[in-house]
Write a structure and sequence with these properties.
alpha/beta, seven-stranded mixed β-sheet, five-stranded antiparallel β-sheet
Length: 238
């Protein structure tokens, strides 16, 4: 069973009016309930850093991990040609139902596009970290160099894991240090209406770490838009 299935089912249910939240389980026992409304939110409700970064979109766009398609729809309405992808078939179904014109079931870690197909790649909604660890993230960014034009750019967001005073998160940082992992590498799984998905890793990084990882893969952080712990960055090719 794919870890995306409970999440995708929740997106479909929300589209039909069911507002049951999903539950995120972390491997240390921490649990958090989260609504699906953020994935359907309109531009006015997006974080300021996201709005600022999206002003820097140009040319043809690849939206990786599109979810319900909020970013793709907003860009479509402004005349951009957007290809949206998500690993969840249910999420793709929802995005198409909402009006995303080109939406495909595909992993951001296994792209099947010709070289130089896109001018802008979106990794929003903390999707900079979908590869789960440092090595895989570098590999993903290297693949995105091939998939983008010479002047291609990535617009990516994350959350600085160090900006917290939550004792549960600080304790998890210590656990990660003991395991030899970055403090922001979280192992989680999603539950929806009692159905549990598989465990997977998500990598949260500070802006300086994003810049360092990007440079190792041939990208330079050109601009940073930050608001408290959350931020989005524009990466250009070195």
């Amino acid at each position: 069973m794919s870890f995306e299935n409970p999440f995708g089912k929740g997106l479909k249910a929300y589209l039909s009016g069911d507002q049951t939240p999903h539950r995120i389980h972390r491997d240390d026992g921490y649990v958090e309930d989260t609504g699906f409304d953020v994935y359907f939110s309109e531009y006015d409700d997006w974080p300021r850093y996201e709005k600022d970064a999206l002003r820097e979109v140009k040319g043809t766009v690849l939206d990786i991990g599109c979810g319900a398609g909020r970013h793709a729809l907003w860009l479509q309405q402004r005349g951009f040609r957007v290809t949206a992808i998500d690993i969840s078939p249910e999420a793709v179904e929802v995005a198409i139902m909402r009006g995303v014109k080109d939406c495909r079931v595909m992993s951001g870690l296994q792209l099947s596009f010709d070289a130089a197909s896109f001018d802008t790649v979106l990794l929003l909604g903390k999707n900079f970290g979908i590869a789960g660890n440092l090595e895989a993230t570098e590999k993903m960014l290297q693949d995105l160099r091939r998939a983008t034009s010479p002047e291609g750019r990535i617009i990516a967001s994350s959350r600085d894991p160090a900006v917290t005073d939550n004792p549960a998160h600080l304790k998890y940082h210590e656990l990660n240090r003991k395991r030899g992992r970055p403090i922001g590498q979280v192992t989680i799984r999603i539950e929806y209406k009692g159905e549990l998905g598989d465990w997977f890793d998500l990598l949260l990084v500070s802006p300086s770490d994003m810049a360092r990882i990007g440079e190792a893969a041939g990208w330079r952080m050109a601009r940073l838009h930050k608001e408290n712990a959350g931020y989005a960055a524009v990466l250009g090719k070195l």
